[in-house]
Amino acid sequence: MSDGNWQAICGDADIEEGAMVPVEIGDLQLALYRVGGEVFATDNVCTHGFALLTDGILEDDVVECPLHGGMFNIRSGKALCEPVDCDVRTYRTRRVDDRIEVLLDQSRNGDV
Fold first, then answer.
1. Residue 94 and residue 100: Cα distance in Å, rounded?
2. CB–CB of 101/15 below 8 Å?
3. 3-state secondary structure 16-70
């Protein structure tokens, strides 16, 4: 059984607590967040309008889009308030040695 398409993204030390880091892999734009010592990953583009979430505000585990103020939970991807009504895609992350890896071929949205 395959371990999936894990992609090394950056060094663990490259993401400080409470920080958001934009990452491009090919045509995929991701946002990495460190909250409570854990690293989370979502698509970096808001589902409501073309704005980068990493240009917004991160408070605890909620990111606010800079364009219209929509908010997403970075752990689940859930849209939390208007005007966003579509969740943002999340990705599984893991730390291997001192690197952060993201699983690119499947999302956490809908995982049981």
1. 6
2. no
3. CCCCEEEEEECCEEEEEEEECCEEEEEECECCCCCCEHHHCEEECCEEECCCCCC
Q: What is the pTM of this model?
A: 0.88
Tens of each residue's pLDDT in the chain, 112 residues: 456 799 999 999 999 999 999 999 988 999 999 999 999 999 999 999 889 999 999 999 999 999 999 999 999 999 999 999 999 999 999 999 999 999 997 555 543 2
The CATH number, out of the four listed (1.10.8.80, 3.30.70.141, 3.30.2130.10, 2.102.10.10), of the domain defined by the range 6-104: 2.102.10.10
How far is it, in rounded angstroms, from Cα 48 to Cα 97?
Answer: 36
